[in-house]
Amino acid sequence: MQKTNQKTAVITGAGRGIGRGIALHAARLGMNVVLAGIGLESLTNTAADIDQLGVQTLIVQTDVSRPDAVEQLAEKSYDHFGRVDLLVNNAGVAVPGSLLDATLDDWQWVMGVNFYGVLYGIREFVPRMMAQEHGSRIVNVSSLSGVLPGGGSYGVSKHAVLVLSESLYFELAQREANVRVSVFCPGWVASEFYRVDQSRPARFQTAASTISEQQRAGWREAIERGISIEDAAQILFDGISADKFYIGPQAFTEQVPTLPDVVRQRAENIINEQSPQLPQ
């Protein structure tokens, strides 16, 4: 038991990619950090880097697609630090390919991590955070794929995260809770996300779910054109400092210059009951 008055951040998917960048940024701000994720080695490496910054870390191996694992994450976070000031539901996965080609195991994995992982985080942490005397914040990580049409199973899951976050925002506002909500919608971020299938649990694995090397190469090429992990984390924390709910679309519009027009056109199509245009 190492309870402290220092602020505490809980980051899921903290071993690699954006999650690692968010965890390091939080540590540089003086926050203790709970590192959650599946890969123990990557979490340990992140913890070693954070420990050099003079704050405390706690590693909790967590499969966010399991509600009991997220419950354990919340319990261990509060038992160890006594408070949570920032929860970032960041863990995410993807399967390249079309919606119709995705297997049922693909869908269950993507929705299990990307959507239900966020929902479980909300269910376990929000009541505890509301009971705290001090204010706190939840960040749910969606994507530009949660704003733009299309995107296969990944896009569906990220749209669901966006709507879930909006619903949570309204409900907490109605209750005048001291918990703030943000939804982060990044575009391409240079990371090893193209290897995400290597952490896919066996229960979601089938022969039909294997990613071809050609698919991986194309995915990698697109991802590596993205901004740095450090820049993505800075965009997020700048948005938090400005108390924004939607964070990311403006910063990443350079990657998708047509973003504002597509979003406006989609809204007009809904209002006017017009069929959507094929995405470019």
Task: State the helical fraction.
Answer: 40-55%
Calculate the terminal CA-CA distance, rounded to whole Å: 53 Å
Per CATH, the class reads Alpha Beta
Number of DSSP-assigned strands: 7
Strand order of the largest sheet: 3-2-1-4-5-6-7
Total domains? 1
Please tell me how large the radius of gyration is: 18 Å
Superfamily (CATH H level) name: NAD(P)-binding Rossmann-like Domain
At CATH level 3, the topology is: Rossmann fold
**Run of helices and strands:** EHEHEHEHHEHEHHEH
Average pLDDT across residues?
A: 92
Shape: globular
Can you tell me the residue ranges where pLDDT is under 50 for at least 5 consecutive residues? Answer: none
What would you say this structure looks like, in words?
- By secondary structure, the chain is α/β, with parallel strands linked by helices.
- The protein has a single domain (8-251), classed as NAD(P)-binding Rossmann-like Domain (Rossmann fold), CATH 3.40.50.720.
- Helices cover 45% and strands 12% of the residues.
- It is built from nine helices and seven strands.
- It has a seven-stranded parallel sheet with strand order 3-2-1-4-5-6-7, with helices on both faces.
- Helix 1 (17-28) packs parallel to helix 2 (40-51), helix 1 packs across helix 8 and helix 3 runs parallel beside helix 5 (116-130).
- The N and C termini lie far apart (53 Å).
